[in-house]
Specification:
The structure is a single chain. Among the domains are: 3-51, no CATH class; 104-151. The protein is mainly alpha-helical. It is elongated, with a radius of gyration of 39 Å. It contains 7 helices and no strands.
């Protein structure tokens, strides 16, 4: 018997065992010439099915898992919303009530405009780089002109 046929018979038998029926005897009587190869496989499938028992988690575990997943999702959502929300300006009395001091203001300003500051710093670095190249080019042209006059 071809392995593919054995696999199909075993798959059908496994499905039947999951439903609660056992057609092992029918397969063996229908295909007596393959009894030697099918019998050990079908009996192993039956023994495995008998050894397996349906397991359901405890209700308290399910509830605890559900609450943990909801809390994690809520925390993740809140962190995303807090990153997107722009803080509102507080009046001086509100700032004092919040405990905001002058030393905290630069940190808050940096946090609020972090992306803009980083883009500005990158642009400034590019400008300085280009200015250095231009200065070098002007210097070398001036040096060449001076050597041409002297020499």
């Amino acid at each position: 018997m071809v392995d593919r046929e054995q696999i199909e018979i075993l798959a059908i038998q496994a499905d039947k065992l999951n439903v609660g029926t056992n057609e092992e005897a029918e397969y063996l009587t229908t295909l007596p010439e393959h009894h030697d190869t099918l019998y050990p496989l079908l009996s192993l499938a039956r023994k495995v099915k008998d050894a397996l028992t349906l397991v359901e988690p405890d209700a308290a575990f399910c509830e605890n898992l559900r609450l943990s997943l909801l809390a994690a999702a809520r925390q993740r959502l809140m962190s995303r919303l807090s990153l997107r929300a722009k803080p509102t300006r507080l009046s001086s009395s509100q700032a004092q009530a919040e405990g905001s001091t002058k030393s905290q203001r630069p940190i808050q300003l940096f946090r609020r405009h972090r992306t803009e500051i980083l883009i500005g710093a990158a642009a400034l670095g590019s400008v300085v780089s280009v200015a250095g190249i231009v200065a070098y080019w002007i210097h070398t042209r001036a040096a060449k002109a001076q050597r041409a006059l002297l020499g």
